[in-house]
Amino acid sequence: MGNKSSPELTLSFLLITALCLEAVHIRSRPYKSIDKMNWTEARLYCQSHYVDLATWNTVKKGALAEYFTEHGVSQVWIGLHRDPEKDSVWKWINIKTGEGVSGDDLSHSSDWADKHPKSHCAVIGDDQMWHSTHCSKKNYVYCSEGDRITYHKVDLTWYGASQYCQDMNGNLTTITKTITSYFESSGWIGLYRQAGHTWSWIGNLSFNYSDWAPGEPVTEDCGLFDPVTEEWYSTACSEELQPLCFKDNLMVVNENKTWEEALSYCRNMTTSDFNYDILSPHYSDYSYLRERIYSRATTDEVWIGLRFLGGKWWLVSGEELNQEMLPECPSQWKHCGTLSKHDTNNWITRDCSERRNFICYRDYNKGGNQKL
């Protein structure tokens, strides 16, 4: 099936393209809710009203200072979470799928207030009750060898204490009944929690008995940002804070249209404040765009502003193309370009009469409102 453009459409397209010579820039802006909510609610709120919780991959940290000052923002939720599969690892949320976390390990980032986010381990307090604390803190140690519990006045982290007890031919103490008479003072016991999981004893013993102090245990799996210190803090996900969301100037349209219909759809949204057009992406934006369309587009590929006309490939934005990267004489009327939601670093040429989703792009109309 073919899609032969009329001379009028071709001429109109070329004239409009010639007038659109400004570069296309994908812009992201932060937004916050008036209401406070826990981290899970915050993420759902951002996904419903914007794109997602903000990450340093989607908003510029340096640009936040002005926003926070203007809006009087205090501590806010950001898209930072402990990896449920590995307790010592922190990652950004997965924008691509809208679920879970992905990317590099951020646990050693200099953005942390204490330079090292902590995991959760249990210590016997001076009150002879259990308290949850950071595993990297140093405490004395309770070791067990069979039924015998010994107290060791050596300052060790929880992991160091575990190895210390093993070197003594034992293990960190596990407690399955009330035996407070054994405990002289504060010290590590063999109880720990991995992110997203329940508390467990060393050796995977059943966790049936507990002696937590009031208000315990406290677990810190979610990340917040403090604009005063400009640093990250780990805190309990049940804490209620305002979410920091982000929104960009893209619109993924879940309507299946031909390329020309998609072009008209986008341009017909233009107002006195904003110009709209079908997106003409840069190569540098492809990774982000694939994440944006992966769970939001209902077709595997989406139309972009790439068109073959008059024996040459054009971008709607008017920017120059590397013609060598595109077929010199496209066959079977594959005169229009798409972007795949799957791993590919290039555009794909398709028959313009095929129907699929597309991406509209919004930019400021000169003299109009300068807010996204």
Automatic annotation (TrEMBL):
Residues 26-144, 157-246, 241-361 form the C-type lectin domain. Keywords: Signal. The keyword Signal applies. It comes from the Eukaryota. Pfam families: Lectin_C. Residues 1-23 form the signal peptide. InterPro entries: C-type_lectin-like, C-type_lectin-like/link_sf, CTDL_fold. This is Macrophage mannose receptor 1-like isoform X1. It comes from Lates calcarifer (Barramundi).
